[in-house]
Give the backbone structure.
Amino acid sequence: LDFNYVEQARARQAQLTKPAGSLGRLEEIAAQVAGITRSVIPVVQRRAVVVMAADHGVTAEGVSAYPKDVTPQMVLNFLAGGAAINALARQAHADVIVVDIGVAADLEHPNLLSRKVRRGTANMAREAAMSEVEVLQAINIGIAVLENLAEQGLDLVATGEMGIGNTTAASALSACLLDVPAEYVTGRGTGIDDQQLAHKVRIIERAIAHNAPDISQPLDVLAKLGGLEIAGLVGVILAAASRRIPIIIDGFISSAAALVAWSLAPTVRDYLFAGHLSVERGHRLILEKLDLEPLLNLNLRLGEGTGAVLAMHIIEGALRTHKEMATFSEASVSNKDNA
Amino acid sequence: LDFNYVEQARARQAQLTKPAGSLGRLEEIAAQVAGITRSVIPVVQRRAVVVMAADHGVTAEGVSAYPKDVTPQMVLNFLAGGAAINALARQAHADVIVVDIGVAADLEHPNLLSRKVRRGTANMAREAAMSEVEVLQAINIGIAVLENLAEQGLDLVATGEMGIGNTTAASALSACLLDVPAEYVTGRGTGIDDQQLAHKVRIIERAIAHNAPDISQPLDVLAKLGGLEIAGLVGVILAAASRRIPIIIDGFISSAAALVAWSLAPTVRDYLFAGHLSVERGHRLILEKLDLEPLLNLNLRLGEGTGAVLAMHIIEGALRTHKEMATFSEASVSNKDNA
């Protein structure tokens, strides 16, 4: 953050026609975006959500309530405009950028960014999810996607994902990078029962034990446990921060990507907003680690970027009040101190 | 609520391309609005926030950080479009309806609804804030304002207010209607210090002791403790519920009005959404009494309807996903049960 701009934004807030601090987090958001973008009165006109899609070999172990065919089906649904993320992105005037970074099916569509690194990860319960080369490829794809968007003009980006089995990968990653037992960060994903949840925890424990990632090396953890879409989002987050573009992270999967990005480059944290608090139990622990307070808490657990895009309205509200409100002197309103 | 429509809305939600329940509160909101409006796929196109403004005689006791001149000054600021509520209403495409229901100053403006019952309430620390006739006049004004909006077409209404000293009135009302000590429901308003807060609590205790309202009679409590803008909002809430229009209540003052309305007619509760949780300490207790879960929690304490209007985006998100998402069969996506 550029604290020169943070301070200038705060000074403006103190002059606006409201009791000091009465807009609460909206005031903090405005100051943070000012510090991110080096603009005293920033705008977030041009918006996008990057939805990275990939499959997970670990679904062979029966960790998800849905079959993996749903990944390509939902990618086509995104491209046809029929998913929750499409409805919410239309509302928020955000472009939906769909990236096939590793779906285990052949997909073609004029609006699909086909950047397949491989057809799904390997089954991490038996081998490394991907190689070191592949994880770097996936991160670079995320960087390139963001750079391309930034070249066209981008003020605010949200992270989204689709991949049957990806809560399993996110839980495994979180357990390693937060150094907590797998059960602390493993939830029901798309909707498994108690017995399936216990099985999912055991699979994650087995994957970690079998691959023995070096937890001091985030890329080793990411390569061994996956997934490709998470690696892609790591690239998106790193590139957006380096471009001084505010990033809204979505739920558990996106936050696992943020955790990896933060492990690689701790300063990215200042460029992040947590869109919401997911029902997935690992999410809260990641946000606490990153010291991020979620903007919304609506019991969402869908992913796709839905909570992040819904939170765009909060960011916009913060910047609209910051920009559009009259000052005490402009409006001839008595301030507390000159009463 | 018409549960026939609630059930039909839930049946639709179960067919949309997402894991069951994964949109959390958005799904509940869609079902509730369906039940309110008797529409399986409701819309909230035409929106307004009704901002009732009035003064409070109790400011003579030094209970506020701001002078009472700020009430008319801020009304003019609303009419000029320079306040926080204007910025947020522009974002939410909501009309701002400003009503002078009891400002202690002469105000004229083509867009102001001049419905002054009296020039501010009397000082409740020494006498009843208003008469029984005046409280009914104020409620009727709120009803008439809402009816007029509804005639022109209204799908969603938010409540807002302005009145220096009105947290004092709301605290006094809440203490009586929740039957709790004044200090439980008294906060810092626009920003008083510890000593001033203790003074404010004593003034509220004195007002309650002196007026001895009959806590089983909500209108007696409202007349004796005020304020005019709160009574006006009671009318807005009652009329909107009777018109089957969903209502988003804002912070502490608006919620005190909702508490009075609920005391008069408990079924209004089902037509209410709590926009946000205010910093004002009494707010949580009112929402718990009404069994309402706030949609946002952003440390706001400005009033004006700001939190309620910001929450309109959440309601819209709920209804957009409900309306615009493809079903499993439309999108050829495998559901959990037919996998």
